[in-house]
């Protein structure tokens, strides 16, 4: 993190529903070309943090205060019109369940092309951009003509990533992107994200409850509990030498092959 | 797909047969003598008996039904006791008017109902939603003949903006004869560029069509609203929101696609309902269609005409359902017809 300002800088973020505060983040940053893992059990506020960054927490009925800066631009309190412009074109969502992520009665390419036209205007280049993005996620561009039910979960997840790439997003917000996939496909998606980070300086906010997945992929991991980050350190360090008891518990819960889980 | 269509057609033929038998039997059970109507009020008992024999009314009902079904298959739907013309000719000359009325109502239903449903979903539980829902209750529950009388009294009677009754201006027809292309007067006037007649037909059609459209508008708006609200929680909607689409596009370009199929299914139901509704509307507006014909036939117990109208309506309804099922597969790729 040598750059002056990180791509994403969250400071004093508070997301609450009425009186109940769900997320309270003192500080969280994500640099360009970095994958940041957001770990923690269900209800810890990981996904809500992702929604807040996308500017979609407000429409879910939450109050958002504090500061979220994306490439130097303040998002909290920004007008909806501006947020809509940023959504998709600079940050994109990789959803939890790829099976439901695309409109079931439209070919997936239709969503991609409509989004491209929305952000980049009408033009013959939209199709080219879409096809080149498909190749970057190791998919045959032919798949754009398919309907969601004709593609596998892993393929759909890659189309979702291609969507972000085609639009030129620099930040992918991946909300448990691998939880609904089986293990081999999971590994494939992680490999793809790592490649995009290394080759294209893509930044990823990777939300997951699965520390094993995070440890293999992320540069840094932030462990969340009850809406707060309790520990945020480089992934290797955190796994080898957890400081917090809760992190130790999470690590102990990771199943291991060929032996009993350690205490 | 071909096997599916063939099976559906076979089943439809059975349904049509059932309709013929039922209508025939019911018409027989009603007291009254069709032969008396045919022979006229001053006919002697001998003359009536002769007419009865001539019309085959003296034979057992089941033989009459078999004869009738055979005739229908050959295109002979019997002779109307009232008009003394072949029933099929009568029906085919009136069908376009009724079809025009029902289709116009359906078209208005889609053009108004779909946007209204979207508007209600977009402003869920807010003023537009409340207005749409209230209007839908009125539209779906107000009796058509009452609505017809209200509109007739107000627009034709008080404001004198539109004609009270009929299907076109008869004087104008003499001056600008209507060429027959599709049989639907409105379409024929349009494609042949017969502007004076187009205006006349349109003016005469507007009020009846509005009345017939009240129910389609209401139920389509409700269905679209419910269906769109239903999809709002789904991941793909969250996904297009996260792509920066404005809420209007999220609903109008993505969410609404999932209601096309239910709306289409509903259209078949509406078609049948509107056919029956149009009978009342035609009576109020003295609009020359199947409904007025059926009503006139029923009052003199004109059995061939009554059975003919019923059969035709049943066939139309069956056809509408078949078309809907075939289009269904085209709209939703997840459905394959077997």
Briefly, what is this?
Chain A: Belongs to the ABC transporter superfamily. Chain A is of the alpha/beta class. Helices cover 37% and strands 24% of the residues of chain A.
Query: How is the main sheet of chain B built?
Result: none
User: How far do the termini of chain A sit from each other?
Assistant: 35 Å
Distance between the termini of chain B: 7 Å
Overall geometry of chain B comes to globular
Low-pLDDT sequence parts of chain A: none
Which structural class fits the helix and strand makeup of chain A? alpha/beta
CATH evolutionary superfamily of one domain in chain B: MetI-like
Can you tell me the CATH architecture of chain A?
Answer: 3-Layer(aba) Sandwich
Tally the helices of chain B: what do you get?
Answer: 15
- Would you identify the CATH architecture of one domain in chain B? Orthogonal Bundle
Oligomer, anyone? heterodimer
Strand content of chain A: 15-25%
Count the E strands of chain B. 0
Task: Describe it.
The complex is a heterodimer of chains A (263) and B (338). By secondary structure, chain A is an alpha/beta fold. Chain A has one domain: Rossmann fold (3-Layer(aba) Sandwich), CATH 3.40.50. Helices cover 37% and strands 24% of the residues of chain A. Chain A contains 9 helices and 10 strands. Chain A has helices spanning 46-54, 80-89, 108-120, 125-136, 153-167, 183-200, 211-217, 235-240, 245-252; strands spanning 8-17, 20-30, 35-39, 63-70, 73-74, 91-94, 171-175, 203-207, 220-225, 228-234. In chain A, the strands form 2 sheets. Chain A has a 6-stranded mixed β-sheet with strand order 6-7-8-3-9-10, sandwiched between helices. In chain A, helix 3 packs parallel to helix 5 (153-167). Chain A is globular and about 55 Å long. The relative contact order of chain A is 0.16. Chain B is built from 15 helices and no strands. The model of chain B has no long low-confidence stretch (mean pLDDT 88). Helices cover 75% and strands 0% of the residues of chain B. Chain B has a domain at 97-293: MetI-like (MetI-like fold, Orthogonal Bundle), CATH 1.10.3720.10. Chain B is mainly α and 338 residues long. The radius of gyration of chain B is 24 Å and the shape is globular. Classes of the chains: A alpha/beta (263), B mainly alpha (338). At the A-B interface, helix 2, helix 3 and helix 5 of A face helix 11 and helix 12 of B.
């Amino acid at each position: 993190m040598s750059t002056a300002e990180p791509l994403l800088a969250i400071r004093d973020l508070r997301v609450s529903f009425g009186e109940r505060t769900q997320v309270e983040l003192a500080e969280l940053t994500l640099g360009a070309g970095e994958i940041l893992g957001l770990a923690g059990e269900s209800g810890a506020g990981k996904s809500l943090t992702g929604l807040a960054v996308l500017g979609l927490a407000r429409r879910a009925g939450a109050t958002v205060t504090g500061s979220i800066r994306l490439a130097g631009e303040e998002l909290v309190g920004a007008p909806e019109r501006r947020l809509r412009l940023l959504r998709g074109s600079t940050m994109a969502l990789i959803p939890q369940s790829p099976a439901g992520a695309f409109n079931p009665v439209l070919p997936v390419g239709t969503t991609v092309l409509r989004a491209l036209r929305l952000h980049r205007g009408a033009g013959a280049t939209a199709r080219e951009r879409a096809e080149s993005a498909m190749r970057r996620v190791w998919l045959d561009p032919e798949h754009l003509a398919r309907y969601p039910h004709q593609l596998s979960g892993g393929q759909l997840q890659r189309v979702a990533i291609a969507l972000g790439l085609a639009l030129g997003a620099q930040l992918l917000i991946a909300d448990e992107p691998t939880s609904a996939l089986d293990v081999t496909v999971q590994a494939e998606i992680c490999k793809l994200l790592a490649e995009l980070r290394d080759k294209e300086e893509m930044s990823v906010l990777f939300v997951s409850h699965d520390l094993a997945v995070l440890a293999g992929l992320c540069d840094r991991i932030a462990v969340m509990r009850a809406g707060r980050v309790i520990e945020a350190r480089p992934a290797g360090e955190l796994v080898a030498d957890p400081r917090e008891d809760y992190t130790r518990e999470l690590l102990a819960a990771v199943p291991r092959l060929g032996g009993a889980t350690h205490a | 797909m071909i096997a599916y269509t063939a099976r559906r057609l076979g089943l439809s033929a059975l349904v049509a047969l059932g309709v013929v038998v039922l209508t025939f039997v019911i018409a027989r059970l009603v007291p009254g003598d069709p032969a008396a109507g045919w022979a006229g009020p001053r006919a002697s008992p001998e003359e009536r008996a002769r007419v009865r024999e001539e019309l085959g009314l003296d034979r057992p009902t089941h033989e009459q039904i078999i004869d009738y079904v055979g005739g229908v298959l050959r295109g002979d739907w019997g002779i109307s006791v009232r008009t003394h013309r072949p029933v099929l000719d009568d029906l085919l000359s009136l069908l376009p008017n009724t079809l025009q009325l029902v289709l116009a109502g359906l078209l208005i239903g889609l053009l108004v109902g779909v946007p209204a449903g979207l508007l209600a979903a977009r402003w869920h539980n807010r003023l537009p939603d409340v207005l749409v829902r209230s209007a839908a209750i009125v539209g779906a529950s107000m009796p058509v003949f009452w609505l017809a009388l209200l509109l007739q009294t107000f627009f034709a009677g008080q404001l004198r903006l539109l004609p009270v009754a009929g299907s076109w201006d008869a004087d104008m027809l003499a001056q600008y004869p209507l060429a027959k292309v599709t049989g639907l007067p409105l379409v024929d006037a349009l494609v042949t560029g017969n502007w004076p007649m187009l205006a006349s037909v349109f003016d005469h059609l507007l009020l009846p069509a509005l009345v017939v459209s009240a129910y389609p508008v209401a139920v389509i708006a409700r269905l679209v609203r419910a269906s769109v609200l239903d999809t709002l929680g789904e991941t793909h909607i969250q996904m297009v929101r996260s792509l920066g689409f404005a809420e209007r596009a999220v609903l109008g370009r993505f969410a609404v696609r999932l209601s096309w199929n239910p709306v289409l299914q509903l259209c078949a139901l509406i078609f049948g309902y509107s056919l029956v509704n149009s009978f009342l509307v035609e009576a109020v507006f003295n609009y020359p269609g199947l409904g007025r014909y059926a009503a006139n036939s029923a009052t003199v117990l004109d059995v061939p005409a009554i059975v003919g109208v019923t059969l035709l309506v049943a066939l139309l309804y069956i056809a509408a359902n078949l078309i809907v099922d075939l289009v269904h597969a085209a709209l939703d790729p997840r459905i394959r017809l077997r």
